[in-house]
Amino acid sequence: MTDPLLILAVGVVIVVGGIIGLKLHPFLALLLGAFVVALLTPAEAIQQFALAKGMSESAAQALAKKSIGERIATEFGVTCGKIGILIAMAAIIGKCMLDSGAAERIIRSMLKLTGIEKAPTAFLVSSFFLGIPVFFDTVIFLMMPLAKAMTMRIGKNYLLLVMCIMAGAAMANSLVPPAPGPLFLIGEMHIPIGLMMIAGTIVGLFTITAGYFFSLWANQKWPIPLRDSLDAKLEDIKLIAAKEDHHLPGLGISLLPVLIPLVFICADTAINAMSTPGVPLTNSPFINNLLALVKFFGDKNIAIVTGGAAALLVLASQKKDAKGGMTPFVQAALASGGSIILITAAGGAFGGMLQQTGISARIADMTKDYQMALIPLAFLIAAIVRTAQGSATVALITASGILSGMATNASLEFHPVYLGLAIGCGSKLVPWMNDAGFWIICKLSNLTEKEALKTISPLLVVMGITGLVVIMIGAKLFPLI
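Request: output the structure for the sequence above.
Response:
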């Protein structure tokens, strides 16, 4: 029972069986799965995993000697550290935008431009281009309140809007720099960043088009209504939807909670792309200080906190007579956000324990001598690693590490950018309970686990496979060498 594949199988049965079969709360099922996986993982595997990550011999031995509880708690804390502030503040932003009428104002303005029929397309394209400079989870946090307000406005297509947001944000996150995964990939495989940005955008538009048509079909087959939640009660949304325009905040004010984090994060990304570590970007002290200020607010946690402050100010301006001030609104938002943080962090702990089994190295060893075309091979390796341990970024890193030598091979019949794109598309397959992003989209949208598994998971599969087909055709027709 020391084979990582067998341990993975046991973990899958416990988590999926616990949630769907035994109706366990996801937090408990994920922690139980993490405990059993950690219990079955030998110390040697943990040590090898740590060494492969670049730890020293002594640090690797120390990790292997840690108790199961310590290792689970560490991974739980690491995930919570990454997403805790983001989720808490995003819950506050969402609640404030819904209750202040800011989301309703944005939706009414969007419908004037696109019309009701094209609203899902607007969500799809907006999420894709937002997902290039902004982290995937941040896009979901910013767009979900708009999806709820839009559904209340048009009275239908909630699942379609949710899937359009997911489709756009997910594909940009793995295909187009400066998203973290593609940035690592182009460095490992020596792909020019400009070429990856252009090619990733082209492939991404093909994949989200396929995702859109699948979303239309899924929305017709499994229509899912907008449901009550602690931070977004349907009665409150209905009351806001019935308001006259002059009772809503202005469009510019309404956009501030979204635009402030977006602008600062994008500006920080641009500054990082142009600067060299340790070297001032300009000779002007004033400009350098200004850029330092932008970088301070460009940190994703500080940016989202600033957006939350703006959202609270917008809400305060609309709820001047509210009893108890802003406290009741914030408490309702945090009650919802706290649950999401716990489930997502437990998912991170489960995925972290799977990684410590050495599952990525095991898959790399199985595929190193597999004789097949390189592009499908790159896709397959990334897809297997992603499905096995839940992280798209780990899948990108693993697959690019395996194939980086082949990418620089002089006899390669096409540009290595196609290998990078194949890895990016493969890293989308298959999101399930070991993926923190799965829980974020599931809980923010109020989809049940079963609903998410039959809609969100196949959506990513459809888009990933579409990307593979487009990449293979592109490599044949436009080898770029």
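The chain has a mean pLDDT of 80.
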